[in-house]
Amino acid sequence: MRSIRNAIAIGFAIILAVGPARAGEFDSILRWRNIGPYRGGRTRAVAGVPSQPNVFYMAPVNGGVFKSIDYGRTWQPIFDDQPTASVGAIAVAPSDPNVVYVGSGEGLHRPDLSLGDGIYKSTDAGKSWTHLGLRDGQQIAQLSVDPKNPDRIFVAVAGHPYGPNEERGIYRSLDGGKTFEKVLYRDENVGASDVQIDPSNPQIVYAALWESREGPWENGVFNGDGGGILKSTNGGKTWRQLTKGLPSNIVQANIAIAPSAPKTLFAAVRTKT
Predict the structure, then answer these.
(1) DSSP H helical segments within the chain, as ranges?
(2) Do 269 and 246 meet the contact criterion of CB atoms below 8 Å apart?
(3) Could you tell me where the beta strands, DSSP code E, fall in 152-204?
(4) With 0-12 CB in 10 A as exposed, 13-18 as middle and 19+ as buried, what is 81?
């Protein structure tokens, strides 16, 4: 019996020793390849389901929502019966993968852009959809769902790309989208480009504001001084702007939180020149 235990221990030690080397070899042969859907076009909304590694959602900015249940080998359209095909954000509730939120409007400023009509929700993993609101936001740039509560969601609304409007900034819903409360707002010209909930503490929320206006001619974009990255430690009740280590003239930013180390954040920023 002792020899069997020794053999198992030696085998386990070999696995531990070889594992990292094999992982490095495996990573080195990975290559990017196009897995569809065919002619999907530019895309900024993609979501996976950690508890269902075979399931993915993706949405071209003007092509509706597609779903794969076979690790990306095939894709099926699941949003074609909705009045808008423009999508800028998808979020799957971590605690209930049947709950999927879609933010319409591509959430980008560019000479050729498409607008949406607010937020949609599915409670059956994309089989059917309900329109929730924020119709005048026109561009939903990001959605973030509480990791433990599928009814608590934060929304980054970019707003009208060609003019001012009040339905922009960061919104919060505590009832699954039945009602929305504006929790971060500067003025009618400043929208939001991102929002992220800390996966280890849902009371901590990060947001990025964005002041930009698309001109009436090609490449005529005007950027203001209202952008920046902010943090809330009380679930969106109050916010403070983060400045340490960041440029002072941020126009637009996108934020990522490391899931394994939530105190580590990454920010891709565009500054005013």
Answers:
(1) 2-29
(2) yes
(3) 153-157, 169-173, 181-184, 190-197
(4) exposed
CA pair distance 239, 241, nearest whole angstrom = 7
Q: What is the DSSP letter of 50?
A: T
Q: Work out the pLDDT band at 26, boundaries 50, 70, 90.
A: low
Largest CA distance in the chain: 81
Given a contact cutoff of 8 angstroms between Cβ atoms, the answer to whether 65 and 27 are in contact is no
The token pair that represents 119 in the structure block: 């937020």
CATH topology assigned to domain 38-271 = Methylamine Dehydrogenase; Chain H (2.130.10)
Q: What is the CA radius of gyration of the chain?
A: 21
Residue with tokens 């916010």: 239
Residue 124 has which token pair?
Answer: 């059956």
What's residue 158's pLDDT?
A: 95
**Are 129 and 79 contacting, i.e. CB atoms less than 8 angstroms apart?**
yes
With a CB cutoff of 8 Å and minimum separation 6, the contacts of 212 are 109, 161, 191, 221, 222, 223, 224, 251, 252
Kindly state the DSSP code that residue 38 receives in the 8-state scheme. T
CA distances from 177 to 101, 150, 171 (A): 9, 10, 10
| pTM, to two decimals | 0.87
pLDDT at 22 (0 to 100): 56
Distances (CA, A) of 28 to 33, 35, 72, 92, 233: 15, 20, 21, 30, 40
Q: Which two tokens stand for residue 250?
A: 């941020």
- pLDDT tens per residue, range 1-17: 444 344 333 333 333 44
Cα distance between residue 65 and residue 222, in whole Å: 30
**SS3 letters for 250-271?**
EEEEEEEECCCCCCCEEEEEEE
